[in-house]
Known about the structure:
The chain is mainly β. The protein has no helices and 11 strands.
Amino acid sequence: QVQLVESGGGLVQPGGSLRLSCVVSGTIFSIYNMEWYRQAPGKQRESVARVEYTGTTIYADSVKGRFTISRDNAKNAVYLQMKSLKSEDTAVYYCNADVRVGERLTNYWGQGTQVTVSS
């Protein structure tokens, strides 16, 4: 059983910072792409940032220069450092990962963590 558990969400003022963490647990052979998505009320879920196994990173235009994604392969973890937060960053943030268990490669989601940017 593979689980993704996010943490680090909360309430922050505009211009503030937060760091999200996501740890993958279970019987894991390897983890490939790891990604953060977000979903604001009434909107579709969108990709925020992605880090590939090689370390290559890709960001949505809306967060470039403000968010930084990183991973720690030894800890099976991915992080999202968010700076200069804006009200439009308010959303539930989800961790997503492609995990190999034995011969099988499966995509998994975390349960989400709420980020609210408000004064």
